[in-house]
Amino acid sequence: MMILKMKKEDLPAFLDSVKEWGELWGPVKKGEKVTYAKVDALSQMDLKATRTIIPPKKFLYPQRFTMFDFDQDGYVERKGDVPKRILFGIHPCDIHGILIMDKLFLENYKDPYYAERREKTLILGHSCIPDDKCMCIATNTDFIAEGFDLFFTDLKMFYLVWVGSTKGHDLVRMRPDLFSRDLDKNDILNYTEYRKWKTAQFKSNVDFTGMPDVFELGYNSPVWDQLGDKCLSCGQCTMVCPTCNCYNQVDEVELGSLEGTRDRFWDSCMFREYSLVAGGHNFRDKRADRLRLWYTHKLQAYIGEFGKPACVGCGRCVATCPVDINVVTVSTALKEQEVGK
Amino acid sequence: MTKQSPKIGVYGFTGCAGDQLMILNCEDQLVDIFGATEVRSFVMAKSDNHEGELDVAFVEGSISTDEQLRRVKEIRERSKVLIAIGTCACHGGPQAMKLGEGKFDEMYKKVYGNAKITLAKAFEAQPVDAFVKVDMYIPGCPIDKTEFLTAVAKLVAGRHPYLYKFPVCTECKWRENECILYNGKFCAGPLTKAGCGAICPSHNIPCVGCWGPTDDLNVSAEYDLLKEKGYKPEEIIQKIKKFGGAKVAQIVGELEKKKKEAKA
Amino acid sequence: MKKMCVVLDDREVQDNPFQPDMWRIVRKYPLTGDVNFFQARPVDVDEALKFNFVPGQFIMMSVMGEGEAPFCVSSSPSRPGLLEFCIRKMGTMTESLFALKENQTLGIRGPYGNGFPIEKMEGKDIMIVGGGMGVAPLRSLLLYILDNRDKFGNVTYLHGARTPGDMLFREEFLQLKERDDLRCLLTVDKDDTGMWKDKIGVVTTLFKDLGPIDAKNTVAAVCGPPIMYKFVMDYVVKLGIPKHQILMTLERRMKCGVGKCGHCAIEYLYTCIDGPVFSWWDVIHMKELIGRGANDKTIA
Ligand SMILES: Cc1cc2nc3c(=O)[nH]c(=O)nc-3n(C[C@H](O)[C@H](O)[C@H](O)COP(=O)(O)OP(=O)(O)OC[C@H]3O[C@@H](n4cnc5c(N)ncnc54)[C@H](O)[C@@H]3O)c2cc1C
Ligand code: SF4
Ligand code: SF4
Ligand code: SF4
Ligand code: SF4
Ligand code: FES
Question: Partner of A284 for a Cys bridge, out of A22, A126, A289, B132, CB 3.0 to 4.6 A?
Fold first, then answer.
């Protein structure tokens, strides 16, 4: 790992230069919210924004895309239509989310579609200021040490820039004049100060310790039914969660032929159809069962397997669910055995 | 294709003919449809209409007269597959609720034209499946071109069309819209089947439910939420009624009950 | 379980795990009213002998333009070159599959899942209990065992069907009754034809004829409809067969077969990778494996 220093006023010039590698994307205002959009320059981005509506997973496995083209002779992998992209302004929680996705899609039967997009997408992270919905401190995802190509920490006067990959290093080498390695005592003090400051900014005091046990104990809790009565089965929580990966697939054909495409699109375990098997048996017919699966996956099962939650604390479920079902309300309800208002 | 091209027919009953217009609007693909199939009957599109055995019959509009009832039964008898197209045929549409006003967003006005329903009503309009077996539903008001064409392509290939079963919200999130409902305003997205591409919320207009109900909806939760946000029970029921037709009529009944219970 | 992965890894590594290969339907005929038998071989004949699998594993089968669905292989890896399936018409994909004719092509990718732990079963007495579609994976296991007969102890096969007409591979199993290195016990719930010469009664009635068994040295494989597990497991457990030696295959909705789509997830397991073969011990220690539901308070 290498840490470099950059003057803040040099960032626009740097981003301008890296566009030579690929399209530049960054957080851009959309109404009251933010979304990653293609931009020409830093000036179009909103770096103060906390979370985008959909996490950067949309770049690595889009909402809907074509896996294969087929004709009478068989299936041909669709590849090569993925543009090279540089994503600027990704926050630590979302990079942690990408690391979880990497594990799922790249290990044990590597998914070539994810792999190609991951390969062609550079992650340029950026430090952030938590708002009232951020809880990455509770999931231990408030800082990030890997998974990015470059990471920019805003220390007011300048940036500390972590170089996380050889590709990141290549970008630096496009404009070596903008970076320096002269780090002194003050930089260290500034950085430790920054970490303390960030930690003090969190307003949410949610605590996930012990959740696996609480889930186990609360498996039969009526709290699940109460939550199930409220849930709209709208699927929004799944679409916005950076660690939800479920998908469905469908074959479509051209009119008048048996040639066509096999497409993949985002699915949600909140839907009734999700666990339905032929003959009509449904393993999770009740909304309560589906909610329990979702939250068990985030806060129990994944911890059991990998020692950390599958929730990266981004707060999107909090900022999205119309009926206020999210990691905070669900874990609190389970602990207190009461669904809050 | 070694197979013979399938014989299809397109029929309109009580509705605004917007779905048939939509099909006619598929300019580029219309030629392909006529090429890949044998269109036996499509009164709006051609004059030499033959009846007889059909592989697929597309039926638009709800059924509201004895004559229509007789005719839809007759079409069913000679069709292998009968597909209800448009929300009127699938769920009864607005006229099934006797709302009569058929008022919805400006966006569709030009597609709809000024078709006023003046047919003498022998009985209250009902969806096609109230009278004959429907094999498939392609809802929409009017139907979505892409959804319709992909379904037709599959039928022609002898495959089963696949339509999204999840609600509008999912497509709405795919398009990264801010949620109207989260912000405290009415939106029928969670109750409504996807397929339209969430066009209304994408233009910051609430979904009014024109695709008809999704297969797993929680009306009671939406009702409670809107009430909490300050909507009056009558207002919520009125809004939910707007497009739903027959299936929602039943749900609304439940809501009325809920409303009364709350009062008691 | 992990051990089975070795078998997978030995195969030529494919770049795209979602890529179906084209196979040709060699034979297709009805086994019962709604179940068809399919035999297929790769279009590319050179691939035929490379397809290596373990009984109990499944493949993802594609009908072009319709989609994919998981099916167990019903033939034995000891008879390579062809794959056999027995498939029930259930919905959209299977309907289109049934419409295919001999010589037409379909897509196959796999094999997936853990399969039966064959190596651990070697040297043991084997008891196989099947009903309904559960016969699909069990036939693969049984044929494999018969082809490697000297590696296994006593073999008992119990099979129940609703009526003689519903009994999959009926003639095949009736022939097995003639063999003296295997006990093949068949029964039907009822017989309206009057042609059935064998037992009548539900599959559990066969346990009465079982006689003494060496329970601790027995591995049982049970597959059938959920209702069958409910009754059969009681009997098998009472025989004294250790819980981790009672195996069963589970069904879940599957879209990928390789642990990506999420559909088959149960707690921290994926049925497609960690299953579909689970032991009874797994099942009673994981709440959702056979969907025992929230209110099941039994401590098995
Ligand atoms: C590991 C495994 C092995 C199986 N082996 C066999 C077998 O040997 N013979 C046999 O007849 N059947 C088997 N099945 C069940 C078979 O996969 C379903 O009957 C089949 O998917 C039904 O598809 P359909 O499109 O006809 O039905 P629909 O009800 O129309 O299903 C639509 C979609 O749902 C999915 N789906 C529905 N049911 C299931 C299911 N049970 N499992 C996974 N996905 C499902 C399919 O992907 C399908 O595309 C097996 C299932 C699993 C999980
Ligand atoms: S939990 Fe909330 S966001 Fe998720 S499906 Fe239910 S209502 Fe929708
Ligand atoms: S569960 Fe909620 S807070 Fe956690 S990662 Fe998902 S959306 Fe973010
Ligand atoms: S705006 Fe409407 S359609 Fe979109 S997510 Fe919110 S409730 Fe659903
Ligand atoms: S968003 Fe709702 S009202 Fe608008 S077209 Fe779609 S279903 Fe109809
Ligand atoms: S079938 Fe997709 S994860 Fe198991």
Answer: A289
